[in-house]
Structures are given as C-alpha cells and as structure tokens.
Amino acid sequence: MVIRLSNKNELIYGIHSIKAVLKKVPDRLLEVFILKGNYSIRISNLLDEIKIYSISIQKMNRRSLDAKVGNTKHQGIVARIKKTKEFHENDLFFILSKHKHPLILVLDGITDPHNLGACLRNADAAGVPLVIVPKDRTSPITATVKKVACGAAETVGLVRVVNLARTIRLLQNQGFFFVGTDSNAKRDIYHTKLTGSVAIVVGGEEKGIRHLIRVTCNDLVKIPTVGNITSLNVSVASGICLFEALRQRLV
User: What are the pLDDT digits (tens) for 102-136?
Assistant: First the structure.
C-alpha cells in the first residue's frame, strides 16, 4: 500500500509490503513508524530485521499513525521509503538481460486495481521478473494494488509501454514466443510448450485481449473448463497459465 509524499518519497504500510521492501531493496527503507503498545510476533520479528539496518523506528499513538495514512488497515506499522521505480520501454532489455529464457506476463486492459495486484502476486510466485502493460489501459499502482499484491509490487518489474503490439514484435525479434489466452482457441494451455523465452498474454474480463494483440501473438490457447461458467477472473487465468509454465520448467 502506498501514499505519495513527493517525487522522491512515499509511505507504505502493512507487514507484507514493508517486509518485501526490506527483503528485496532494503536501501529504499528510510524510516519506520509503529503503534505504541504490545506488538504481535510478526511485528516484533519484522522490527528485529529492520534494526539490523540501523533504520530509525518511531513509536506513535494510534491517532498520529492513522493520520499518516488515513482510514486504512495499516496493521500498526508504516514506513517512509524511496519512491518505487517505474519502468518504461527503454528498461526492457536491461531487466531481461539478467535472466536466461525468462517467463514474462503481458496484461492487456487490466483496469481494476484488485486484478492488477493479484496478477503481480501471481507473477512473483511464479518467478516472473517482468510484467508488461499498455500505458493508457492499465490501473495505476494504487494503495489497493499494493495491498492485494502483498509485496509483489516491490519485487516484480512493471513496464508501461506506449504501443503494446510494437513491443510484442520487438521482443519476438529477440526470440520471445507470445502465447495469448482466448476461450475460442483450438488447443488448451496444457498441450502447449511453455519453456524457453515465453510471454503469457491475458486480457481484461469484459473484452479479453484486443484483436490487434491477439493476431500479433505467436499462438492462442484456452483454459479448459467443465462447468457452466466458461470465463475466469483474469487473475485466476494468469495464475493457471503461469504455474503451468512453471511446472513445465521444473520437470
């Protein structure tokens, strides 16, 4: 969860968000504010980790702590950190150069912050280093995104691009194979090779992947269902596809 303070700093709150920053990028953690009183075991353990880095810890009463972040469930801990880095098209190859045959996720038209946060959480769990989204058709990184992502917004690179189709073609020229999800596809995800440099593409719940993006993909697959409901929440769909790809890579 995040609140902007300036162009350089922001506030995050909640155990998962702060722990993720501490684990992944501890140098971004500037100051911690905690609620006076008895601490839970989780808070106590987190404070022990924070003290290792000699980061300032201030105790506050509930009213003062609430005033920092508004009417939110902050779990009794708030932190001031250096602003989350936002990535753009020029950062793509720098991020990807650190990984051999990476699995990446492309989200087309995910405007709901809950869905974006859940997709980021899926991506982190599946070892995805990079999520690509169109600049103008995606939810911003809001407090809700951070809360649902449970720290993944701090660990997964989110790259916003101006022209998604152009970016796909650019990565295809670098050897990436793009697999789009489509309920009308002939082959299902479980009969599709997902090893190597692969990008999974999923679209918003209402319209799915846009036509231009669909025809730009190298292949289209569906997720088989046997019930009356054939459409899945986008975060569920992304999780199914990412973990099938992970399963194949672990065999």
Answer: 999 999 999 999 999 999 999 999 999 999 999 98
What are the residue ranges of helices labelled H in 37-90?
41-52, 62-69
Q: Which residues contact 145 (CB under 8 A, 6 or more apart)?
A: 113, 114, 116, 117, 120, 139, 153
> Do residues 179 and 201 make contact, with C-beta atoms less than 8 angstroms apart?
yes
Torsion of CA 43, 45, 46, 48, to 10 degrees: 120
83-106 confidence digits (pLDDT tens): 877 788 889 988 898 999 999 999
Q: 129 with 96: CB under 8 angstroms?
A: yes
Spatial neighbors of 226 by CB under 8 A, at least 6 apart, are none
Q: What is the pLDDT of residue 3?
A: 54
Task: Name the phi and psi angles at 133, rounded to 5.
Answer: -135, 155
Counting other chains too, the contacts that 213-218 makes at CB distance below 8 Å and 24 or more residues apart are: 213/108, 213/164, 213/165, 213/168, 213/180, 214/180, 214/182, 216/165, 216/168, 216/169, 216/178, 217/168, 217/178, 217/179, 217/180, 218/172, 218/177, 218/178, 218/179
Do 157 and 106 contact (CB within 8 A), yes or no? Answer: no
Q: What domains sit in the chain, N to C, each tagged with a CATH number?
A: 9-82 (3.30.1330.30), 89-250 (3.40.1280.10)
Q: Which tokens is 34 given?
A: 């905690």
The rounded distance, in Å, linking the Cα atoms of 145 and 123 is: 14
Q: pTM score, two decimals? A: 0.82
Degrees, nearest 5: CA angle 91-95-99: 160
d(CA 106, CA 164): 9
